[in-house]
Backbone:
């Protein structure tokens, strides 16, 4: 009696998107790969601004100080 747990699972080294292309590929145009890269770069920018703000160089705080 063979069980399903004894089967070997082969995993690809590339993460495929639904269109069959590597999700980490840099492809120009409107495609799922650019959505992934857009999210990554946005996260890097957001964390960079938080670190910049913690260092005392807050652009938002300076602008709000001028308005007040």
Residues:
């Amino acid at each position: 009696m063979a069980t399903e747990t004894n089967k070997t699972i082969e995993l690809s080294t590339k993460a495929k998107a639904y269109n069959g292309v590597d999700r980490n590929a840099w492809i120009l145009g409107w495609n799922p790969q650019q959505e992934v890269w857009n999210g990554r770069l946005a996260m890097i920018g957001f964390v960079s601004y938080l670190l910049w703000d913690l260092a005392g160089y807050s652009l938002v705080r300076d602008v709000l100080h001028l308005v007040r």
Notes: The mean pLDDT is 79. DSSP finds two helices and no strands in the chain. The first helix runs from residue 32 to 54.
